[in-house]
Amino acid sequence: MSLGQQGEGGMTMAEILSQSEIDELLNALSSGEFNVTDIQNETEEKKVRLYDFRRPNKFAKDQLRTMEVIYENYSRLIASYLSGVLRSFCQAEVISVEPQTYYEFINSLPEPVVLGIIDFRPLNGSAIMEISPDIAFSIIDKLLGGPGRVIHQSKTRSFTEIEISLIEQIVNQLISLMDEPWANVITTNFKLERIETNPQFAQIMSPNETIAIITMNLSIGEIEGIINICIPHIVIEPIADQLSTKYWFSSQSEKNASNAKSDLLTKKIKKAILDIKAVIGSAQITVREFIGLQKGDVIKLNKKIGEEISLVVGGVEKFEGIIGTKNNKYAVQITKLKGGETEDE
User: Fold this and answer.
1) Is 99 helix (H, G, I), strand (E, B) or coil?
2) How many H-runs (helices) and E-runs (strands) does the chain carry?
3) Cβ–Cβ under 8 Å, residues 248 and 174
4) What are the strands, taking DSSP E only, across 102-150?
5) How many CB atoms lie within 10 A of CB 326?
6) pLDDT for 289-317, tens place per residue?
7) What is the distance of C-alpha 231 from the center of its chain?
8) DSSP run (H or E) holding 50
C-alpha cells in the first residue's frame, strides 16, 4: 500500500511514503490532528487546464490511435508495392500520429519537395502526401535502371518534367492503395489531383486549420526518408465518430479473421493482370525464306480453317477455342480446358 505525502498543496501521489511515515499519518488521523474532509474539499475544487486558442486540439486520442492503426496497415501495403516495382527491399513503418496546424506543417517543408494533393472522396476536401526528396530521387533512379543511390549536393536541385512524370505514376498508385486500410471506417475513392514541388503552391486550407500528421519512415535499400500524410480535421469531421477506437474495433471484431484474409487474397487475385494470347498456328521456314519474305507472300500454318486453336494464359496453354467474330471484331470462343496440365500450371 502506498499513500501520498501531505504538502502545502494537499495530498499528492508524487512521492512514496515509508512505513514510519504511514504510521504517523494513521496516528494523526485517529487523534483528530488531521481532517479527512480537508482532502475531500481540495479534490472537489475545479481544476484549471491551460488551453491555447491558437492551437485548438480537435482530435481525440482514440481518433489519432485509429488513424495510426489504419496507416500501420497502409505502410505494409506500400512496402510490398514498392518492393515489387523497384525490385528492391523496401520497409515502411509509422513513426508518429499527432495534431498540428497547417501553417506549421507547410512552413517546415523543404524546397523542392514532392506533394501529392489527394481528393478525399467521398468527403469534401483534400489531403496531402509529402515524400522527402531523398526518397523521391531514389525511386526515380530505380525506375530509370540506376542503383537508387542519392548524390547529396550542397543545394538540392529541382525536379525535371520527366522526373515529375515518373514520380506522379508512383504517387498515383500509392494513393490508390490507401482505399483498403480505410475500408473499415468508410468506403473511399482517393484520387490524385496534382503534384506540387513548391510548398507555397499547396495552400489547400486555412493556415490555422488543425490537421493530423501521420509520419512514416520509408527505407529503399540503404536510403531512408520520410512520408507524411496530412489529413485536415475539417475533412474527416463528418466521420469523427467512426474514428473512435471503440467503434472501429467493434466493427473489426464482427468479421472473421480467416474470411477477411481470404477476401483480401481473392480481391488481389481478381485485380491481377494476365496476358492471354490466341495462337492461330505455327510454321517452320528457313532463314533464307524469312529474309526473302515480301508483301503478298503466304505462309502456310499447321492449322486448318475451323480447327481448334490454343489459348495461352500467362505463358501456359490453358484453353482451346474456335476463331470467329463478335461485334465486327476478331474473337475466340473457348471450347474446352486444355488437358494434361501439370501441378505447376
Assistant:
1) strand
2) 10, 12
3) no
4) 114-119, 126-131
5) 9
6) 888 889 888 888 888 877 888 888 877 88
7) 13
8) none
Distance of CA 214 to the CA centre of its chain: 10
User: SS3 of 25, please?
Assistant: helix
Strands 90-101 and 10-11: what pairing? Answer: unpaired
Cα(17)–Cα(13) distance, rounded to whole angstroms?
A: 10
Task: Return the ∠ at Cα 216 (arms to 210 and 73), rounded to 5°.
Answer: 100
Residue holding cell 515480301?
A: 294
Whether the Cβ atoms of residue 151 and residue 227 lie closer than 8 Å to each other:
no
Q: pLDDT tens digits, residue range 23-33? A: 777 777 777 66
Q: Residue 283 and residue 298: Cα distance in Å, rounded?
A: 11
Tell me the residue type at 249: F
pTM of the model: 0.57
Q: Position of cell 500454318?
A: 301
Q: CB count, 10 Å around CB of 331?
A: 12
The number of beta carbons lying within 10 Å of the beta carbon of residue 283 is 9
Q: Alpha carbon of 296 to those of 283, 292, 293, 299, 330: distances in Å?
A: 17, 12, 9, 10, 21
Cell of 95: 513513426
